[in-house]
Amino acid sequence: GQQLNQSPQSMFIQEGEDVSMNCTSSSIFNTWLWYKQDPGEGPVLLIALYKAGELTSNGRLTAQFGITRKDSFLNISASIPSDVGIYFCAGNNAGNMLTFGGGTRLMVKP
Amino acid sequence: GAVVSQHPSWVICKSGTSVKIECRSLDFQATTMFWYRQFPKQSLMLMATSNEGSKATYEQGVEKDKFLINHASLTLSTLTVTSAHPEDSSFYICSARHRGRSYEQYFGPGTRLTVT
User: Which pLDDT score, from 0 to 100, does residue A94 have?
Assistant: First the structure.
């Protein structure tokens, strides 16, 4: 099915650095969700965004719902080793079906 | 709150046998549950959507007679892989849409299926 364009696909960062990833789409979404998946586990919901322009934080995580409703970004501040994993964005449309990005694999150098 | 469980967490079966995977929403009611398949290093692929008390809706290319889905209650959906083949080996993940927060889906921990 359709996927969102998520970038970067993977990244290495130094512990303590800030991280930024984003998703773009050619379609408008009503809701943007950000998930984190650890190896062998299911995705865990990190942040849900409901309104265009909305900026929401969850601890060291901050996400924004783009004004055009076609994009979203996720920032992680002061990264730590347990931030390692795959981060997925997902857009929810009027049909309430989730469309997923391809994922950003985050690897942290200790 | 919003916990989803899956059972079993992993299973090994022989070709030709059937395997049933359960998905339960533990602390909320879910009118809709979703079944996904995930290959290594790839994103989640939606297989089917199941609504409580009605037939599942399958995505294009997913064989409904092979992947039987039953959504018997507001807290339980099952996926049965029938006549399993090695190519069915994958990570199967369910999610449940919270009845009161319909834009949010909560995922189970996944089931690793290996068909020998």
Answer: 65
